[in-house]
Design goal:
The protein is mainly beta and 136 residues long. The protein has a single domain, classed as OB fold (Dihydrolipoamide Acetyltransferase, E2P), CATH 2.40.50.140. It has one helix and seven strands. It has one helix at 61-67, and strands at residues 8-14, 19-22, 28-41, 47-58, 75-89, 92-101, 107-112. Strand 2 and strand 3 form a beta hairpin. It is globular and about 55 Å long. The chain starts with 7 loop residues before the first strand and ends in a 24-residue tail after the last strand.
Length: 136
């Protein structure tokens, strides 16, 4: 028997406040936009930054309530699964990918409020951007 794992963990900042939607049956879901960044030094010694944006769809009612307390800029950890979705763009089918948090799976944790961070420097636990050699 084979084992398959579809698990993603993101640690980053919210790009905006959560988009919470309520359906006609009273159930709610939420979308988050999470930015993750990596830092390094180029050949000239200048610190560079690359930011990736991730769409997160939350279907777990407990975590939707948690998401309602979050705000733009909050530093969060999201654990879920990758799923593709289909949408129409210019009268043609298009596909996207998102991290989903369903009932009985995933997690969302607030690591730090946006107002608690006073600078835009990389966090302390990240490797020094000046490290240009891999130690192994």
């Amino acid at each position: 028997m084979s084992v398959y794992v579809n698990r993603v963990e993101l640690i980053g900042n919210l790009g905006n406040s959560p988009d919470v939607r309520t359906f006609s049956n009273g159930k709610k879901m939420a979308y988050l936009s999470v930015a993750t960044s990596k830092f390094w030094k180029d050949k000239e010694g200048k610190t560079r930054k690359d930011t990736q944006w991730h769409r997160v769809a939350i279907y777990n009612p407990h975590f939707v309530k948690k998401a309602e307390t979050l705000q733009s800029g909050d530093y969060v950890r999201v654990t879920g699964a990758l799923e593709t979705f289909e949408y129409m763009k210019n009268d043609a089918k298009a596909y996207g990918i998102e991290v989903t948090v369903h009932p009985y799976s995933g997690d969302i944790a607030l690591l730090r409020r946006a107002k608690d961070k006073e600078d835009n420097e990389p966090d302390e636990y990240l490797p020094d951007p000046g490290e240009d050699e891999i130690p192994f």
